[in-house]
Amino acid sequence: MMKFVGVLLLLSGSAQAFAPSSKRAFVPSRLLAGGFEWEDPKETFDQGVENPFKNPSLMDTNDGLKVDAARLLGPRLSGSNLYFIGMMGSGKTAVGDIVARRMGNYNFLDTDQIIEKAVGKTIPEIFESEGEASFRDVEGQILDSVHAYVRCVVSTGGGIAERMENWSKLQTGIVVWLDVDPEVIIKRMSSKGIENRPLLQTGDPLQTLQDLLERRKLKYSQADVAISVDSTSMNEEDVADMVIKELHDFIDDNPPAWKSAKAKAQAEGLDWVQ
After folding, report:
1. What's the mean pLDDT in 171-196?
2. Residue of 63, 61, 62 whose CA lies nearest to 72
């Protein structure tokens, strides 16, 4: 039987292999100060990009073409990672990949794919040979490696939110919960089969899924952005559109601390050093 403890270093290396080398160039600007991550202001300073959904003219170009609102997310995120959480089958991988591609300057990572590549086994095989608890241990190690990088869209496993120690890593970025009705998930899975879903190998997969969601819902609800999907008529692009809009709105509602200070200073008639 493979001992997971013995492959943690291999997994860490695989996480680095999945993270593009171009991202590593940004790491030196992130300094540790008193246990907190601090970014060089020159990396995070206002690039003059506003919410395109509140100012549609931002998406217009001189040649009459439209700029994808996702392209305007990167400058507003200032390198912060996006973490997708939610139940199995909720579309985290498909939607996360679409969002990353549309953003253009972000890369997509999937924690399950990293684990499978490192171990050389599928997720169902890992569950069968090592058990869920051991899998979750390694999943946490992978998240620990991945969160050190910037400008990534990361799809996580459905159970990653159950361990509180994972939240300190998730919350270094913006967490997006794809809240999909269990019945919608089961309908999606019916065409592909559920054999590759270890936790659903029960007499009543729908009830099992509902029980899992009930157990995890309190943790999922701590996400920064929640996207409710209650219809099978919504495809991955539709959900990605919702995610992009909600992220722009979230950034408006939660500006960086320096930006709030700048607005306060300007409101009081004080100069702000550019």
Report:
1. 88
2. 61
Ranking 37-46, 152-161, 204-213, 256-265 by mean pLDDT, the lowest is 37-46
Please state whether the predicted TM-score (pTM) of the whole model is above 0.85.
no
Residues 71-88 have a mean pLDDT of 93
CA–CA separation, 203 vs 206, rounded Å? 9
Each residue of 122-147: b (16+ CB within 10 Å) or e? ebeebbeebeeebbbebbebbbbbbb
The token pair that represents 140 in the structure block: 């946490």
Decide: 122 and 116 in contact? Cβ < 8 Å.
yes
Q: Look at residues 48, 129, 103 and name the one whose alpha carbon lies nearest to residue 244.
A: 103
For residue 205, report the phi and psi dihedrals to the nearest 5 degrees. -55, -40
Spatial contact of 113 and 186, defined as CB atoms under 8 Å apart: no
Q: How far apart are CA 149 and CA 157, in angstroms?
A: 18
Q: In Å, what is the CA distance from 219 to each residue of 15, 86, 87, 98?
A: 25, 10, 12, 25
Whole-Å CA distances, 71 to 20, 66, 125, 133: 19, 11, 38, 39
Sequence letter at residue 71: R
Tokens of 261: 């200070």
